Amino acid sequence: MVLLFSPPLHRQRHQFVIDFIKRNKPKKVVDLGCNECTLLRKLKFHREIELLVGVDINSAAMTKKMYELAPISTEYLLPSYDQLSIELYQGSVTQKDGRLRGFDLVTSIELIEHLHLADVERFSEVLFGYMAPVSVIVSTPNSEFNPLLPGLTGFRHSDHKFEWTRAEFQSWALQVCLEHGYEVQFTGVGLAPPGQRERVGFCSQIGVFHRLSGRDDARLLPGDDAHEIFSYTLLYSIAYPSLRDNNVLRRILVSEVLYWAEQLKRGWMEEKTGEGEEASALCQTQGGGGERLSERQAEMEEKQTGSAGRCVCVPLAKLWSCCPRVQAMSGSVSHLSRFLLDDPLVKLTQDGSAVLVDDQEQDQEEEEYDDLEDTGCTEASQCSLSAVQQEDWEVDL
Ligand code: SAM
């Protein structure tokens, strides 16, 4: 078929849904007849949504690209506080399933015309009577537009069971509103050429429904019966990493702390070396840096942690003040200390006020670790061990 619309009609329908979501900020969204998850793959970027669900009778279509719904690597490395879970179910929209009740928005984009008329009735009852979401967007072809589609004879798709005129669509929609307590506005996407718009309407007609009882309807709370109905098959489920999950928060916080502690230590060592002090001399020094340290350096000190191990103490207060991300994640220095206390990757001073970082350079560190391992030098090896464990943890990501 000749391309009549720019952007293409399917994109205009999806953009309509996205614009609605931007305005209304629903947290729980279901896309019925999600097919290859095209709309879901766009909606996963709208992080006001916390639960995104797709349903289709055709599992092969759904699974084709479902792995594109998974988080990308940066979402593991730099998770936000947003929460998002995505679930895909195989099932028919004419069947009830308790897991789909209480949603903020249900979309049914070019689905209804694939149902036999007897099933449209069941679908209406399931969607508006049982799922009872706050809002519903239904799009379907407008048959009055068909004469403008070049080369079209019959329906727009071989699987369509009907295509409604505007009056037919509106009659179904208004009946549904009457029976289930909704109101509806009619609109559409895909403009006809100027001069014909009034006569033929939009190419895809759209009804936007809102439940009259708003968000606090008792029907939103699934009753015992509702819990027992699980007619759909779960095909895919993924929870995005979120800083609201304590385990994720701890992992990210620890990696930030280790990174910044290392940076601060390096800056301090460089400053000391720049002042004329030999790096080798520095390694032999014991105790605090003394009067020659600048204000910044004075906040750190070197510590002997064992017969062969020496560490630089990086005060948590210093880390906290120079790393906004650590501030945001921990809230206060005492929280930060509590977070790090039991973490095997972080070595704290006894009073929990500073992180101990090995004062050797990276390349020396590895050699030293090997040596220490051979000699079984426990306390010093703990400092180096943290670097090794961190690498293992990063591989897991
Ligand atoms: N909504 C999709 C989009 O915007 O990209 C396109 C929908 S496609 C034209 C129609 C979909 O409805 C197909 O994937 C089909 O498998 C699905 N479908 C048909 N009958 C169904 C039923 N009874 N229950 C659930 N899905 C059904």
Topology of this protein?
Elements: H1 9-24, E1 28-32, H2 38-43, E2 51-56, H3 59-64, H4 73-77, E3 85-90, E4 105-109, H5 117-131, E5 135-141, H6 166-180, E6 182-189, H7 197-200, E7 204-211, H8 224-228, E8 233-239, H9 246-274, H10 279-284, H11 295-298, E9 301-304, E10 310-315, H12 316-322, H13 324-330, H14 333-341, E11 354-358, H15 362-375, H16 378-396
The structure holds S-adenosylmethionine.
Order of helices and strands, N to C?
A: HEHEHHEEHEHEHEHEHHHEEHHHEHH
Total discrete domains: 2
Note the overall shape: elongated
Bin the helical content.
40-55%
The CATH architecture of the largest domain: 3-Layer(aba) Sandwich
Beta strand %:
15-25%
Mean pLDDT: 84
Runs in which pLDDT lies below 50 for 5 or more consecutive residues are 278-298, 372-397
CATH superfamily of the largest domain: Vaccinia Virus protein VP39
What does this structure look like?
It is a single chain. By secondary structure, the chain is α/β, with parallel strands linked by helices. It has two domains: 9-239, 3-Layer(aba) Sandwich (Rossmann fold), CATH 3.40.50.150; 246-358, no CATH class. The protein is built from 16 helices and eleven strands. The strands form two sheets. It has an eight-stranded mixed β-sheet. Helix 5 (117-131) packs parallel to helix 6 (166-180), helix 9 (246-274) runs antiparallel to helix 13 and helix 15 crosses helix 16. The longest helix is centred in the middle third of the chain and has 29 residues, at 246-274. The two termini are 46 Å apart.
